[in-house]
Q: What sequence folds into this?
């Protein structure tokens, strides 16, 4: 639940940040009549994301166990690829996000009415689709149903609340620090999802080594106990882990975390702080 709260908070704040910047720029340039188009685009993005999540959840039902595991494992690996790209992209894009969005708004405002709707839909929809896929993969990895969804919903609600404060100019956020810490945490979460995706492919008999365990601490950390549930929910940790799962986890987390830390530690010319909404359009 904690991991899904983090996913909902981070992805939600990315989407909310985009909307705040778009609204602030429209207000600053006296084009408030175009605001409904932004919200229409956001509504389209939310609907598409929810439909995509429903397709992932209910689509594989009725297939054989091996087919479900093959689809689930493959999509989990794809989800890890998306979230990895997102972590690195947002760490750098936060520095020039406002300028990019201003350019898109200017171009769309000069065109047809659908243009600005598409700006809102595409800007928010990217985060929505990534969130739907990664939440689905993380939920399958923990083996739970409603708790991860509640955690994600709470994270999104907190993100919306922060967005409202940003829009009113009440709150400032150091984007560099926020995306650094949440990015590092999501790399750990993604490592667990990747390992679970490999386990799914092993159960589908696509990858070997299902019964070759690197370690089994089930007698110490019971899978259904409090500690086992906590570790599973946050890190997707499995007390019984195969060699291939362990190797894949290390091969992903160690180099990706190293590259991420080296990337974010590069000195920046300007601080990545988000100013009040009344100032983001400058």
A:
């Amino acid at each position: 639940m904690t991991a899904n709260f983090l996913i909902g908070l981070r992805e939600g704040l990315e989407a909310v940040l985009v909307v705040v910047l778009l609204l602030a720029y429209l207000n600053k340039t006296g084009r408030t009549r175009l605001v409904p188009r932004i919200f229409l685009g956001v509504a389209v993005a939310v609907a598409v994301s929810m439909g995509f999540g429903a397709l992932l959840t209910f689509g594989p039902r009725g297939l054989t166990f091996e087919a479900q595991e093959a689809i689930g494992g493959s999509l989990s690996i794809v989800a890890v690829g998306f979230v990895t790209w997102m972590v690195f992209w947002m760490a750098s894009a936060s520095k020039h996000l406002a300028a990019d969005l201003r350019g898109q708004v200017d171009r769309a405002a000069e065109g047809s009415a659908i243009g600005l709707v598409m700006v809102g839909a595409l800007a928010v929809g990217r985060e929505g689709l990534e969130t739907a896929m990664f939440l689905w993969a993380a939920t399958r990895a923990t083996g739970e149903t409603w708790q991860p969804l509640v955690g994600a919903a709470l994270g999104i609600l907190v993100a919306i609340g922060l967005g409202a404060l940003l829009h009113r100019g009440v709150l400032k956020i150091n984007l560099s620090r926020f995306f650094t810490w949440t990015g590092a945490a999501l790399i750990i979460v993604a490592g667990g999802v990747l390992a679970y995706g490999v386990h799914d492919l092993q159960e589908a008999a696509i990858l070997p080594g299902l019964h070759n365990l690197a370690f089994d601490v089930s007698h110490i950390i019971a899978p259904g106990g409090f500690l086992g549930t906590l570790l599973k929910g946050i890190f997707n940790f499995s007390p019984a882990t195969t060699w291939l799962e362990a190797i894949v986890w290390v091969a992903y987390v160690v180099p990706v975390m190293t590259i991420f830390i080296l990337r974010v530690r590069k000195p920046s010319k300007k601080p990545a702080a988000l100013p009040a909404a009344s100032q983001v359009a400058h």
Q: What stands out?
A: Strands lie at 173-174, 213-216, 240-242, 273-274. Residues 90 and 256 are 15 Å apart (CA to CA). The two ends are 39 Å apart (CA to CA). Residues 271-282 have pLDDT under 50 and may be disordered.
